[in-house]
Automatic annotation (TrEMBL), chain A:
It comes from the Bacteria. The chain crosses the membrane at residues 17-35. Residues 68-214 form the Oxidoreductase molybdopterin-binding domain. This is Oxidoreductase.
UniProtKB/TrEMBL annotation, chain B:
One of its GO terms (biological process) is respiratory electron transport chain. It comes from Kitasatospora aureofaciens. Keywords: Cell membrane, Membrane, Transmembrane, Transmembrane helix. Residues 10-177 form the Cytochrome b561 bacterial/Ni-hydrogenase domain. One of its GO terms (molecular function) is heme binding. Pfam families: Ni_hydr_CYTB (PF01292). This is Formate dehydrogenase. It is found in: Cell membrane.
Length: 237, 221
């Protein structure tokens, strides 16, 4: 090569820096699960909330699969229950608020890794809505639709009847805001959070499980925390 | 107005293309990362699957300009220059450290070849961090490639490294912002001889006809 004069030779610092970074990266991947727990533990005990600014921070993250989601409130929100039921119904927000409520305080675990500890959700047990509608014999599953116009989710009837599955009206003891999927979202405590569909607008009882939005993109249909999607998180419920 | 007779060739067309293409792809990676990661931006943009697709493909494209550029002798020569430290580079680092410690107005002499030690370190960081961010990104994307604990680790490294890259790129842009001649060198390929002698005293520019390197319209900067 016709590189000039003294620059031909010299210490191969470039190779050292690049190999060093590769080594650090590999060590980081190996130690990552431990470091991530350490960081989450630190964030839990940090009253200033400054750790929330760190990369890989704790806390909810906003995921939406569409460009914009219409806002709904008590005046125009409705939840329809239909499909294989005796009494199809359309509930307004006030109707849901008048039904029996249950409050659950559990961790929220996202399939992408973040976890929010001890998060209170309150709302109508899904089983109550199904009983009110009267599920027909032969029904096997429940499909959920959302007023963002794109997201869908599903549960088997047995999963839907669990007492830790809610049609949630409040999060952290406040009405659910639009960004968190309000005014009404699904809350499936024992499963990864993508099952807890935001902006819930429809519950349809079906004769078979119809995989939802993310399941169509490769995620597990039975999304038990710690027992699916190739992850080993501690169960949430 | 720059006088053509006083200009020397710093970067060939291939080198400038590699720089510009890498910068654009990296820019899209950082912008889409912001839209996936920062809550206010994520709320504004939504459309997660589209943003993810854009991010993944631009990430995969990161090393492509450099790999294509290696077909050019000038790129290979500069890559070799960037990879090695000469005695002048150690002296440059010492001078920077001395100046950081004592705020004397008399700046210590900072010798440099075509690239100074800081530029070399930046280039080496860019290559190393690019490989790591690409590797961890692949682990996150191709979920069946490795056990799940690797994916947690890869996510952790990817998040932190991305933040570091954003900071370092901001520093890179700031340095360029403060040195117009250096910026012109990357845009037109040509720099003033007096600037080269001052900033890169050990560099002996190839005595090419500068007219090869850039259309004359660019010369006024």
């Amino acid at each position: 090569m016709d590189t000039t004069h003294e620059e031909d030779r010299g210490t191969p610092v470039g190779r050292r820096v690049v190999l060093g970074l590769l080594g650090l990266g590999a060590a980081g991947v190996a130690a990552g699960p431990f470091l991530q727990r350490l960081e989450s533990g630190l964030a839990e005990r940090d009253p200033s909330g400054l750790t929330g600014l760190l990369p890989g921070n704790n806390g909810f993250r906003y995921y939406s699969v569409v460009t914009s989601v219409p806002e709904r409130d008590a005046t125009n929100y409705t939840l329809t229950v239909d499909g294989l039921v005796e009494r199809p119904a359309t509930h307004r927000l006030a109707d849901l608020q008048a039904m029996p409520q249950r409050r659950l305080v559990k961790d929220v675990q996202c399939v992408t890794g973040w976890r929010v500890p001890d998060t209170p959700f309150e709302g109508v047990p899904l089983a109550h809505l199904l009983d009110t509608a009267g599920v027909q014999p032969g029904a096997k599953a429940v499909r959920f639709s959302c007023f963002d116009g794109a997201y869908t989710e599903s549960l088997t009837l047995d999963q839907a009847r669990r007492d830790d599955v809610l049609v949630a009206l409040s999060l952290q003891d406040k009405p659910i805001t639009h960004d968190h999927g309000g005014p009404v979202r699904l809350y499936v405590a024992p499963m990864y959070f993508y099952k807890s569909a935001k902006w819930l607008s429809g519950i349809t009882v079906t004769d078979e499980v119809q995989p939802g939005y993310w399941e169509g993109n490769g995620y597990d249909v039975d999304a038990w925390v710690g027992r699916s999607n190739g992850r080993v998180d501690a169960p949430t419920s | 107005m720059r006088r053509r007779a006083e200009l020397v060739l710093r970067f060939t067309r291939a080198e400038r293309w590699v720089h510009r293409a890498t910068a654009h792809v990296m820019g899209v990676c950082l912008a889409t990362a912001g839209c996936l990661y920062l809550a206010p931006l994520a709320e504004l943009v939504g459309n997660r699957p589209l943003v993810v697709t854009l991010h993944v493909w631009c990430g995969l494209a990161l090393p492509v300009p450099l790999l294509l550029g290696l077909g050019s002798r000038a790129v290979r020569t500069d890559a070799a220059r960037l990879s090695r430290f000469t005695p002048a580079d150690w002296q440059w680092l010492r001078a920077v450290r001395t100046r950081a410690c004592q705020t004397r107005p008399m700046a210590a002499h900072r010798p440099a070849g075509k690239f100074n030690a800081g530029q070399k370190l930046y280039a080496q960081w860019t290559l190393g961090s690019m490989l790591v961010i690409l590797g961890t990104g692949l682990l996150m994307w191709l979920t069946h490639l490795a056990p799940p604990s690797w994916r947690t680790g890869a996510t952790f490294v990817h998040d932190w490294l991305a933040a570091a890259i954003a900071v370092v790129v901001a520093g890179h842009v700031r340095m360029a912002w403060r040195d117009r001649e250096s910026r012109l060198g990357m845009r037109t390929g040509l720099v003033e001889r007096s600037w080269a002698e001052r900033e890169h005293s050990y560099w002996q520019p190839v005595r090419d006809d500068p007219a090869d390197a850039a259309p004359t319209g660019d010369l006024t900067g």
